[in-house]
Design a protein that fits this description.
By secondary structure, the chain is of the alpha+beta class. It has a domain of 32 residues. Helices cover 27% and strands 9% of the residues. It has 2 helices and 2 strands; from the N terminus they run ββαα. A two-stranded antiparallel sheet has the order 1-2. The N and C termini lie far apart (33 Å). The relative contact order is 0.13.
Amino acid sequence: MWLAGGGIRQGYAHGRTDDIHYESVIDVVCMCGRYATLLHALGLNHRQLTFDHKGR
């Protein structure tokens, strides 16, 4: 409900999983990419909210 109007489509599935639905096999997205997309939908710049620590 709090994502209403943020550009997130209802019922959208991205990519495919293996036969037993355990791992993603097509169009895999890392966790940091998911958070960046969510923050972008909320109108925030993810690069201003993070900092590099020893190259990580």
